[in-house]
Structure formats: structure tokens, C-alpha cells
Amino acid sequence: MWFKQLQLFQLTDSSTYQINTLIDKLEPLAFKPCLPSTFSSVGWVSPVDEEDAQLARSINGCIMLCLQVEDKILPATVIRQELSERIKHIETTESRKVYQKEKLALKDDIIMTLLPRAFSKHTKLYAYIDTKNQWLVLGTNNTKKAEQFISMFKRSISDKVHPFEIKKLSSTMTHWLKNQNYPSSFAIEKACVLQDPNQQNRIIRCQHQDLFASGIQALIKDGCEAQQLALSWHDQVNFVLSSTFSLSGIKFLDHVKEQISEIEAETKQQLFHADFLIMTGTFSSLLKELLGQFIEIGGSSEKSTAIPAKADADQ
Length: 315
Known about the structure:
This protein is of the alpha+beta class. The chain has helices at residues 19-26, 76-93, 100-114, 143-156, 169-179, 214-221, 254-261, 268-297, and strands spanning 6-11, 40-45, 57-59, 62-73, 119-130, 135-138, 161-166, 186-196, 199-207, 225-233, 237-242, 246-252, 306-308.
């Protein structure tokens, strides 16, 4: 459940999220397994892996949600092979050519025949509502999965959810690297992705490198800008910050994980609550400080502003 990736969304409605009301909204779109004739199914499940557990779990002002996706696995090679055999059989036994329209009909028939026997792949997407900050914190950076989750969130809960836009974030990260001038609560680690804005194909990926060494600094002076930057925060969390204001490679350091041992958790539910409490508390402080830093920088020459995306951006 500990998020390794993160996208932040702003909840722009003024409603108060109550756990019981939220569960009632999730129930109509609770997960149901794929029918034999369908490729996929998506719906809400409990974030806690326990029988008859509620579809949402709340602690300390945060409400965890979980969306389950079932996809049938039907390899294209299997379909092509079966189709080829059927076409060959028809051409041999009936002494005629199979044309495109009939091939498409045969392919559809093969798919409907094989679908009930196909294996299923289940994926769970976790997110939580931070009611104090009016955030939706989504635990994936995958574009398709994020769109799937947000679509279901809008259908079930509220359509007043928008991604944060951080203007000129790439310029800000480049400024940190170029001038070795960055917030004291953060430390720059040894990885980044640089890109030349004038040559989009000129991308330099740096791993295990001193980013203040002359070679890296020469690339920055030559016009390359930071698209991703590895950071650590208060010796609690390591992560990679992207110019899209998403976090990846999140790693909670020992200081954070040690807090778990201080909480006497015996059951799955108690352990979930302990993990959830510490993770959300850590993220709340980290994200507020990140956003705060960008807003503060807004008055300097490296202007950067954090704002919710306009409502029509999602249309």
C-alpha cells in the first residue's frame, strides 16, 4: 500500500467528505467480475484485504479508496494462429478465397469463442482523499491508469477534481542545479533527466552522477533543462520530481518505517491503519512544503506558480 508513485489532484468543490456518504456513492459501481463475453471490468473494492470490508477506510482526515481492474488476457498471436487455420480450412475444403469482410467476421467469432477461457489480470489502483487539504492523492503515474481512476472518481464521487499545474517547474529545478541554490529541507541526489528545449530528441539521463560536476553543469550551461530530478526530503523520503509535478521512485527511509514498530499492530486492519496514518502524514508535510516552495519562488526571477488546472482542461 505504500505509494511508490504519486500524482496530486485538487478537489475544488466545497463539500465535506464523510466516510458513510462516500461509501454509499461507491456502492453502485462496486467491482463485479468480468462476464464470459467481456474483455474487462472495473469497480471499487475495499482497500483492506478482508472479507466484507467497507469500500473506503478513513483515518485522521484521510479516506483511502481502491479501484480494481480486471483485464482478460487474449494474446494476438493466438487469435492470428486460429484465424489462419480457419481461413486455410475454408479455402481448402470449399475451394474459394476468403475476403476481408469474412476474415473480420471470423476474427470476431474466434474472440468470442476464446474469451470465456482467457486468463484474467487484476490490477488495484489506490488513492486517498486528504479532506484537510482538499487533495486527491493517486498512487500511480501511469497515464492510462490515472485516467481510468479519475473517470471512475468523477462518476462515483465528484467531477470537481483537477490536476495541479506547476508553471515553469523545469526552469525551477534547473535553477536549483545551476546555482546550487535550493530549499534547505531538500537535498539533491545523484540522478536527473536533462533535455534540450531546442532539440527535443537530445535527452541525457544521469544515474549515480554528481550533478554539480563540471560535465553535468556544462550541459546545463549549454541550454539543457531538468525534466526530472532526484531529491530527498528531511532524510525521510527519497523521490524523483518530474516537471509534470508527479513523484516517482518514492522510497520511505528507515526513520519513517521505524514509526510502524512503535504502533502495536496485530491484525491486518491495524497494520493497514498504521501504514496509512504514517504514509499520509508524511505525504501531507512533503507535498505542502513542495507546493509552498514553488509559490514562494513565484516572486523571484525563477517564477513558478502552483494553481489548480482550469475546469475546462478536463473536457
